[in-house]
Write a structure and sequence with these properties.
The chain has three helices and six strands. With about 150 residues, it is of the alpha/beta class. Strands 4-3-1-2-5-6 form a six-stranded mixed sheet.
């Protein structure tokens, strides 16, 4: 029987949207909330310490911490085409600056995060759904069955 499990994560991050025609062209921050849903069959091997689990929530937490949270939490994410990207002082001004080859919208960040997680999940675990909340009322979502 296939079972889905979901784990929630949160991190703080700033970004700016290059060439945008609104206030998000300025560097600003969000309290992001990330939801990861995976699926698999619960382990039914008697005596195994993970008996009854699809995946240990701690293992999922470890993956997301390493490839998402440790990278993005308390960072400033900018499009690599930004004029700030050429500044040698950018990291001394903003601290942890990440230059990405895409516009750092919620949607594109979600696509990036999805790729980072997919490469680290165990073979018997499928990514089902990933959702990134940029604000309390706005989020982007990828449902794997739509792909």
């Amino acid at each position: 029987m296939k079972v889905r499990i979901t784990k929630l994560f949160s991190f703080e991050m700033a970004h700016a949207l290059l060439g945008y025609d609104g206030p998000c062209k300025n560097i600003h921050g969000h309290s992001y909330r990330l939801e990861i849903t995976v699926s698999g069959e619960p382990l039914m091997k008697e005596g195994h310490p993970k008996l009854g689990m699809v995946m240990d929530f701690g293992q999922l937490k470890s993956i997301v911490k390493k490839v998402v949270l440790d990278e993005f939490d308390h960072s400033t994410v900018l499009n690599e085409k930004s004029t700030l990207a050429d500044s040698p002082e950018i990291n001394s001004i903003f601290g942890n600056v990440i230059l990405v080859p895409y516009q750092p919208t919620c949607e594109n960040l979600l696509i990036d995060i999805r790729h980072r997680i997919l490469n680290k999940l165990p073979e018997n675990i499928s990514l089902e759904n990933i959702r990134l909340h940029e604000t309390a009322t706005s989020f982007a979502e990828i449902i794997e069955s739509d792909l």
